[in-house]
Amino acid sequence: MGLKKVIQPDYREGVDRKQLNILRDRFLLINQHRLERTQQALPLRHQTTLDLLPLFFQVNHPLLPGYVSRDTPRGVANYAPDKLVLQTAQRFSKTFKYKSEKRLKPDILSLFMMGSIGTIAQSESSDIDIWLCHRSGLSSAQLALLQRKAELITEWADAGGLEIHFFLMDADHFRQGQGGCVDKESSGSAQHFLLLDEFYRTSVLIAGCYPLWWLIPVCDEDEYDTFAELLTRKRFIRETDVIDFGGLAHIPKEEFVGAGMWQLYKGIDAPYKSVIKLLLTELYAQELPEKLNLSLEYKQAIYNDDLDVDNLDPYVMIYRRLERYLKERGELERLELIRRSFYLKVGKKLTSKPTARTASWQRKVMTRLVESWQWSDSLLRSLDQRNLWRVPQVIKERKAVVSELTHSYRFLSQFARTHGLKAHINADDMAILGRKLYAVFQRKAGKVELINSGIAPSLHEDHLAFHHQSSQPLATDANGWLLYRELDSSTDVAFHPVLKRSTSIVELIAWCYFNGIVSKGTRLSLVAGKSTMTMFELKNIIATFDQLAPYPLPSVPQERFRQNHFPLHTILFVNVGVDPMEEMSARGVHKLSDRNDSLGYSSYRDNLVATLDQISINSWHELSVQRYELGDTLIQCLKYYLATLVEVGDHPMPRLDVRCFCPNRAMAIAKRVNTLFNDVVGAFFSAKGILPVRYIIEMDRRFFVIQFFNQQPRFTGFDGLSPLLMHLEQPQSSYAPIVVDHYALLDQPKLRLVFDKSRAGTIQVFFHVIKDEAELYIVDEYGSLFTSTTPYHSHQSLLIPLYRFFTTILERRQMHQSIDVFSSDLELEFSELKVGKTPMDYTVDKKVLAPEAVALFVDVQAIGSYDAQGELQFDIYCDQQEFSVLEYGDRLIPAVAHYILSKRKQGELYPCYLTDLGLPQGVDEHDYHTGLQTVQYLQYKKTLEEKLNQALQTLTDR
Question: Which residues contact 817 (CB under 8 A, 6 or more apart)?
Answer without folding.
Answer: 930, 931
